[in-house]
Amino acid sequence: MNIAVLSRGENLYSTQSLIKAGEKRNHDIEVIDPTYCNVMIQKNKALLQYHDEIVDDLHAVIPRIASSNTFYGTSLVRHFEAMKVFSTVSSFGILEAQDKWATFQILASAGIPMPKTTLGSHYYLADFLKDFGEGPVIIKLVSGTHGSGVILCENYKNALSTVETLQSTQTKFVMQEYIEESKGSDIRIIVVDGKVVASMKRKAAAGDFRSNLHRGGSGNPIDLSDAEKEIAIKAAEVLKLGVCGVDILQSKKGPLLLEVNSTPGLEGIETITGIDVAGKIIEYIEKMVNSK
C-alpha cells in the first residue's frame, strides 16, 4: 500500500514514528511537504503535482497540518478527498478542530459537556465578562495550539485589560470558566477509528497552569471512566476525525471537554504509555482502504 504523511517536518518524532510503523507493516510510506504541492483541476479532474511529478498512486494520506498552515493544508486534504484517496482525518474535521470556537459550537450541538465558554465579542464585552464573576478566567486565542495563546487571568480587572488588548489588535478569542479543582491537570486521549487507543493524565509544571508536555508538563498513564471514553469517542465522531487527540478536564460536574486536536503529537503519549499509537493509525488505514 502507498501511504503519504503530509508534513513539513520529516524529522519530527510523530512523522518518523508513522514512517517506521508503516514500513514495519510492509507499506511504501513517504513524506509529502505541502509546501511543494501544486493542486489543480484539469478536464474536470482533481490533479496534484509534487515538485515536478503528478501524484496518482497513493492509497491513503495521514495529514499532519499545523494551525499556521490551516487554509492550504485543509485545501490539500480536500483535494486528496476529491482524488478518492483515503485520509485519516477529513478536511472538515481539520478546519473545525483548528478553530476553537467552531469546535465548541459543533460539540455543543451534540450535547458534549464543556466549561462555560463565551466568544470574545466587540460589543458589551465588559458585561459578558461579568458573567464569569470576580475570580479567575481563561482567555484562549481561537487558533492557538500546544498551550500557546492560553492566558490565565486572576480576576475580572486583569481579564478585562487582557481582552481589551486583544480586541485592539483584532485578535479572535474566547473566554472560558476556570476549573479550579483540575489543579493544572487534564487528560489527553487518543482516538483512532472510533476507539480509545491511549490515554494519559498531564500535570502542569510548577508555576504554570498549562499541562502541555511541550511546556514542561509531566504525564502518567490513566484508566479512563466510561464517561471520559464516551466524550472522547463522540467528539471524534461529530468532528469526523478518524484520528485525534481529545483533552478533558476532571471537574466537580464530571468530565468536561477542553479541546480537540486533529494533529496530536505522538511522542509524549507513546513514550509515557508504551503504546504504539502510530501502529494503530496504520491498522486503521489498512482496514479502511481494504474495505473499499
How would you explain this protein's 3D organization?
The protein is an alpha+beta fold and 292 residues long. The protein folds into 3 domains: 2-88, 3-Layer(aba) Sandwich (Rossmann fold); 117-178, 2-Layer Sandwich (Dna Ligase, domain 1); 183-280, ATP-grasp fold, B domain (D-amino Acid Aminotransferase, Chain A, domain 1, 2-Layer Sandwich). The protein contains 9 helices and 16 strands. Strands 14-13-12-15-16 form a 5-stranded antiparallel sheet, sandwiched between helices. α1 (13-24) packs across α9 (277-290). The longest helix is centred in the C-terminal third of the chain and has 14 residues, at 277-290. The protein is globular. The mean pLDDT is 90. Keywords: ATP-binding, Ligase, Magnesium, Manganese, Metal-binding, Nucleotide-binding, Protein biosynthesis.
CATH class type of the largest domain: Alpha Beta
CA-to-CA gap between the ends?
Answer: 13 Å
The outline comes out as globular
Mean pLDDT: 90
Largest sheet: 5 strands, antiparallel
**Can you count the beta strands?**
16
Q: Over the alpha carbons, how many angstroms does the gyration radius reach?
A: 20 Å
Number of separate domains: 3
Order of helices and strands: EHEEEEEHEHHEHEEHEEEEHEEHH
Main-sheet strand order equals: 14-13-12-15-16
CATH superfamily of the largest domain: ATP-grasp fold, B domain
What proportion of the residues form beta strands (DSSP E)? 25-35%
Q: What are the low-pLDDT stretches, counting only 5+ consecutive residues below 50? A: none
Any idea what the CATH architecture of the largest domain is?
A: 2-Layer Sandwich
Number of helices: 9
